[in-house]
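haha ok so turns out i had the wrong file open the whole time. this is the CORRECT one, sorry everyone. sequence first:
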Amino acid sequence: MQKIAEKSTLKAGEVALVGAGPGDPELLTIRALRIITQAEVAVYDRLVSEEIMNLLPAYCEKIYVGKKQAKHHLPQEGINEVLAQQALAGKKVLRLKGGDPFVFGRGGEEAEYLLERGVSCHVVPGMTAASACTTYAGIPLTHRGVAQGCSFITGHLQSEGELDLPWTSLSNDSQTVVFYMGINSLPIISQKLIEHGRLASTPAAVIEKGTCPQQRTIRGNLESLPDLVKAHNIKPPALIVIGQVVDQFDPAHVNENGYLQPIVNRDA
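then structure:
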């Protein structure tokens, strides 16, 4: 236990880039929890759940830099500067990020900025949404004989309103594809994948607010999913999953929190 504690010590003038996972505080790592309880300043995003924020010490200063799609409370350059300023002032700084810092979290950019200014960083991995949310929805990312690999892709539209992705390589039926930040671009995603060879009937799902009490999972296929998202008024944060694994478990087995149970009295 002593070695674990030593690795989890946040010193004055250091920054810890900590992955908070997609929301459920029970998915925090032991190391993340240890760091959180030492923070003097917490710089946090919109996707960090209230339950996790409540784990911060009472004396911890909280600085909100939340990001919503296309609407940033503070631009990335400003976030970098805040982290450096707080660390150089001798504070124990926590950068609390939804998911994992190095998976679409810009943790690499923040670490580079801090290192250039002489600030040491801890990087603490967190459960990324593609893994945690699909598990809570009863969708395995890989399954023998069904899917031999998976890809994590950002579906965020570029400034020109385009989505330039390697569509052909994403159309392999033995591969699961997970799109982050893709709700607004889902019609384009569906169209392009079908154009490049993915069957319109390919099972697909969207998971809204995964691992949180409000989680919803909507299942359909690659062609129908855009209309289903619109009909159910799905809003970000939401994850799109495309591949045969979506249908691996009957939804009747799934209890929306990673709990699978036998189907009892199905014909009753």
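Residues 25 and 248 are 27 Å apart (CA to CA).
again sry for the mixup
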